[in-house]
Write a structure and sequence with these properties.
With 567 residues, this protein is α+β, with helices and mostly antiparallel strands. The protein folds into 3 domains: 196 residues, no CATH class; 92 residues, no CATH class; 127 residues, no CATH class. It has 23 helices and 15 strands. The strands form 4 sheets. The protein has a 5-stranded mixed β-barrel with strand order 8-12-13-14-15. A 3-stranded mixed sheet has the order 1-3-5, with helices on both faces. Helix 6 packs antiparallel against helix 9. The longest helix is centred in the C-terminal third of the chain and has 28 residues. The protein starts with 9 loop residues before the first helix and ends with a strand. InterPro entries: HET (IPR010730).
C-alpha cells in the first residue's frame, strides 16, 4: 500500500493494482510516478540528468500502453512482420481494417504522443510491452473536415510507429549498421504486447554526435507539459551536454535553455549553425546563438531548431561558422500580393519542397481538420469592431482556418482525386473574394513550413520575420527574412542580399541549410545570416532530379564558391 498521492490515469492505476506484482515479482523496480514527487518541480527537473543511466542499465523496461490505440484486432490485421514486404502489406491491410471497422474511432496511442516514453524506450535494450484494458474512443466531432483528413490520420499514425521503431533500432549505432530486423521486431512486439531486445555495447551510448535518431523526429507530434523538458529529456543522453542545476533551469525559460544547449553543442564540435541565428531576429551582436527562438509545442518543433548538426563540426572560430557564398539573390515582398498570387506561391512551394510539406502532412497538420469555414473567414475579414477582444478572436479564427486550408491543400496535392477538387473549389472562392488579412496569415504559415519551422512559431514569427519571395537563378522560393533588416534596407538593391550555406564536418555542402545573408565590409568581412530558405534537396531526390534543380538554381557546372565567415 502506498500512502502518498500517486498522479496517474485511472486505467493505469487499475492496471498497476492488478498486474504490477505479476510483472515485477520480487525484483527491484523503478517507476517515475512512484519514485519522483510529481508535486515538486525541482524533483522532476533533477531526475532528467539520471534518466539515461536508469534506462540504459535496466534489465528490462516495461512499457504500459493505454489500450485506446492499436488494439488486438489491429495486430491481427498487420499479421506476421518478418520482412519489409510483410510490413508494407500489413500496413495496407491495417489501413483498410481501420477504415472499415473503426471509422468513427480515434486512435489515441499515448505512447506515441508523449515525449518521455520515447526517450525512456530508446535508451532501453530490452523492452516488454503490456497494455491496459482495450477500449475505443469515439469522436464526437466528425465534421466533414475530420472525415476528409481521416486517411491522413491513419498515415500519420503509421509514420509515428515507424519512427518510434527506427529511433529505438538505430540508437547509438553507426549510420551504416543494419537494424532492419530489430526495427521489425520492435513494431511486432509493440502491436502484440510482447518483448523485444537489441544488441548494444555496454557503457554510455551517445557521447558524440547528434544522431539520425534525433533528426527523424522532425515531424514528431509528441508533447510534454513543459517546453524545457523537450531539451532536458533529449539532450541529457549526450555526453557533451551538461544541464544547468534545477534551480537555474526554473529561472531560465526555454529560449535561454536552448541557447545554452546549442552553444554547448557547437563548442563540443557537434553543431555548426542554428536554424535561427541571432541576425535572423534582428540582433547585431557577435553571437551565433540567440535566446529569441519560438517556444516549441511539439518535439518536432524542437528538432527543427537545431539546423546543421554534424559528427565533428568545424569549430573555425568561437563566434562564427564556416560557410560558402553561393551568389546574390533578389528578395521581394509577398504579403501585399493578391490571393491569386499567394496561392500560386504556395503551389510552387509545395512542388519545390515536397519533402517538407510531406513531413507536415504526417506531422503537425495531421492534428487538425481539413475543412475551413469560408463564411467565418469572410466575416472576420469585414468585421467593423476593432476592440482588442474582437481583433484577437478574428486573428485566432484566421489562424485556425488557414491551417485547415493548408491541410486540405496538402491532402489534395498528395492524394489527388476528390480531395484535390475540394481544395480547388476553396481556392476559387478565396480568389473571388480576395480576403487580404487571411492571405497574410496563409502565406506566413506556408513560409514557416517551407523553411522547416513548426507552425506553432506563427505568433512568434510575426514579431521578427517577414515572408518574402527569393529568386535564386530561375526559381522563386518562399522564405523568411528579418523584419528589422527590411526596415533598414531597400529591397530594390539586387546586390544587397546573398545566398550562403554552412560547411559540414566533411567539407561538403548539403544544400539543405541555405540562408540569406548580408555581407559586411572590409577584407575579412563576415556575412550576417538574416533569413531562411527552404532546403534545396532531400533524401528522396534522385541524381537526375537534383541535376535539373541545380541548373534551375543557377549554380555553376563547376562550383567556384567563396568561403566566408557566417555570424
Amino acid at each position: 500500500m502506498i500512502a502518498d498521492q500517486v498522479i496517474v490515469s485511472k486505467s493505469k492505476a487499475r492496471f498497476l493494482e492488478h498486474n504490477l506484482q505479476d510483472l515485477v515479482g520480487g525484483s527491484y523496480f523503478w517507476m517515475d510516478v512512484l519514485c519522483i514527487d510529481q508535486t515538486k518541480e525541482e524533483e522532476r527537473i533533477k531526475v532528467t540528468s539520471i534518466i539515461p543511466q536508469i534506462f540504459e542499465r535496466a534489465q528490462k523496461t516495461i512499457v504500459i500502453r493505454d489500450g485506446s490505440g492499436y488494439i488486438s484486432c489491429c495486430a491481427r490485421a498487420f499479421g506476421s512482420l518478418s520482412t519489409w514486404d510483410d510490413y508494407n502489406a500489413g500496413v495496407r491491410r491495417w489501413c483498410k481494417h481501420w477504415t472499415d471497422e473503426h471509422n468513427y474511432d480515434l486512435l489515441k496511442e499515448g505512447i506515441l504522443e508523449r515525449l518521455w516514453p520515447l526517450q525512456e524506450s530508446i535508451l532501453s535494450n530490452h523492452i516488454q510491452f503490456v497494455t491496459c484494458e482495450e477500449r475505443h474512443i469515439t469522436s464526437n466531432d466528425m465534421d466533414w473536415g475530420r472525415i476528409l483528413s481521416g486517411q491522413s490520420d491513419i498515415i500519420a499514425n503509421v509514420d509515428r510507429l515507424w519512427t518510434f521503431s527506427r529511433a529505438w533500432a538505430s540508437h547509438g549505432k553507426d549510420k551504416q549498421a543494419s537494424s532492419a530486423d530489430e526495427q521489425l521486431s520492435f513494431i511486432s512486439a509493440f502491436l502484440n504486447n510482447e518483448e523485444v531486445s537489441r544488441d548494444f555495447p555496454e557503457g554510455p551510448s551517445l557521447s558524440g554526435a547528434i544522431e539520425d535518431g534525433f533528426f527523424i523526429q522532425s515531424n514528431s507530434t509528441r508533447r510534454t507539459t513543459k517546453a524545457r523538458d523537450l531539451i532536458l529529456s533529449t539532450m541529457s543522453q549526450y555526453g557533451w551536454y551538461s544541464a544547468p542545476s534545477p534551480q537555474v533551469v526554473r529561472g531560465m525559460g526555454f529560449g535561454r535553455l536552448f541557447q545554452d544547449c546549442f552553444s554547448q553543442a557547437r563548442h563540443a564540435d557537434r553543431a555548426t549553425l542554428p536554424k535561427i541565428s541571432a541576425g535572423m531576429v534582428g540582433e547585431q551582436g557577435t553571437s551565433l546563438e540567440t535566446s529569441n527562438v519560438p517556444e516549441p509545442e511539439l518535439l518536432g518543433d524542437l528538432v527543427k531548431l537545431f539546423g546543421l548538426a554534424t559528427e565533428g563540426a568545424l569549430q573555425h572560430d568561437k563566434d562564427c561558422a564556416l560557410g560558402v557564398e553561393l551568389g546574390s539573390v533578389v528578395v521581394r515582398s509577398v504579403e501585399s500580393c493578391d490571393m491569386s498570387t499567394i496561392l500560386r506561391t504556395l503551389e510552387g512551394s509545395l512542388e519545390f519542397s515536397k519533402y517538407a510539406w510531406g513531413l507536415a502532412r504526417r506531422g503537425e497538420l495531421s492534428l487538425h481538420g481539413a475543412w475551413p469555414d469560408i463564411k467565418a473567414i469572410f466575416a472576420a475579414e469585414h468585421e467593423k469592431k476593432d476592440d482588442e477582444a474582437t481583433l484577437s478572436k478574428n486573428e485566432n479564427l484566421r489562424h485556425m482556418n488557414a491551417i485547415q486550408f493548408l491541410n486540405l491543400m496538402v491532402l489534395g496535392f498528395f492524394d489527388g482525386g476528390g480531395t484535390k477538387m475540394d481544395a480547388d473549389s476553396f481556392k476559387r472562392d478565396l480568389i473571388s473574394s480576395n480576403p487580404s488579412k487571411f492571405s497574410k496569415t496563409l502565406v506566413r504559415l506556408g513560409a514557416l513550413i517551407s523553411c522547416g519551422i513548426g507552425v506553432s512559431a506563427y505568433l512568434w514569427s510575426k514579431t521578427v520575420w517577414t515572408p518574402v519571395l527569393v529568386t535564386v537563378g530561375k526559381t522563386d522560393l518562399l522564405g523568411m527574412i528579418s523584419s528589422r533588416e527590411l526596415a533598414n534596407n531597400s529591397l530594390r538593391d539586387e546586390h544587397h542580399f546573398r545566398l550562403a550555406h554552412p560547411i559540414s564536418s566533411n567539407m561538403t555542402i548539403t544544400y539543405k541549410h541555405a540562408v540569406i545573408t548580408r555581407p559586411g565590409e572590409g577584407v575579412k568581412a563576415r556575412h550576417r545570416c538574416i533569413g531562411l530558405l527552404p532546403a534545396f534537396t532531400d533524401m528522396n531526390m534522385d541524381r537526375e532530379g537534383w541535376s535539373r534543380r541545380y541548373e534551375d538554381l543557377g549554380f555553376p557546372e563547376v562550383p567556384t564558391f567563396n568561403v566566408v565567415d557566417l555570424i
